[in-house]
Amino acid sequence: MAALGVITLILLVFVLIFYAYLANYSERDVSFFLSVGLIMLVMNLCTNAGGTFGLAWLYLVIAVLFLGLGFAVDAHESVEFYKSIGPWLKATFSDAALLGWKALSLVVFPAGMVCFFVMYKDKPALARVCGKCGLWGLLLWAILLWAILGLAL
Predict the structure, then answer these.
(1) pTM
(2) Model pLDDT, residue 42
(3) CA 35, 36, 40, 46 torsion-angle sign
(4) Is the alpha carbon torsion for 78, 10, 89, 27 positive or negative?
(5) Which DSSP string do the residues of 76-124 spell out, in sequence order?
């Protein structure tokens, strides 16, 4: 049951990314789906921490339902989201030197934030990439820590 809680957590993060894309590129208002997705993400983390994994089925059903409703909200932009995943992966992982900076900044988020401030005058584009990855790393570490401690305790 703990595995279902973790799978649902990953699926809810994907749902949030999907609706964030729709919020930026669609004319439709998807704020309801974003807010409910955030609430479900926090509730999933809390129920995993509490050990009541039976609610993970509910989160799984709602996440799959929300992914299906995305096509009802805006079918064209939903298809464009799924089409954009391949080019995004190619652009992200094609530059080996930049990938190293991104990985360092994501995994060791304080290093990414320090790189942002150190490189800001000389290399502003690289500094922004390191800063963004550092902030995403902070968020990722917070969620992972919450999920791991919730499952372990």
Answers:
(1) 0.72
(2) 87
(3) positive
(4) positive
(5) HHHHHHHHHHHHHHHHHHH-HHHHHHHHHHHHSHHHHHHHHHHHTTT-H
Check if the beta carbon of residue 22 is closer than 8 Å to that of residue 73.
yes
Classify each residue of 99-119 as buried b or exposed e, where b means 16 or more C-beta atoms within 10 Å of its C-beta. Answer: eebbebbbeebebbbebbeeb
CA Rg, the chain, in Å? 18
Left, alpha or beta for 51 (phi > 0: left; psi -120 to 50: alpha)?
A: left
In contact, 76 and 21? CB cutoff 8 Å: no
Whole-angstrom distance, CA of residue 115 vs CA of residue 112 = 5
Other residues' Cβ atoms within 10 Å of the Cβ of residue 87: 9
Rounded Cα distance, 67 and 151, in Å: 26
Give the pLDDT confidence of 55-84 residue by residue, as tens digits: 888 888 999 999 999 999 989 999 999 999
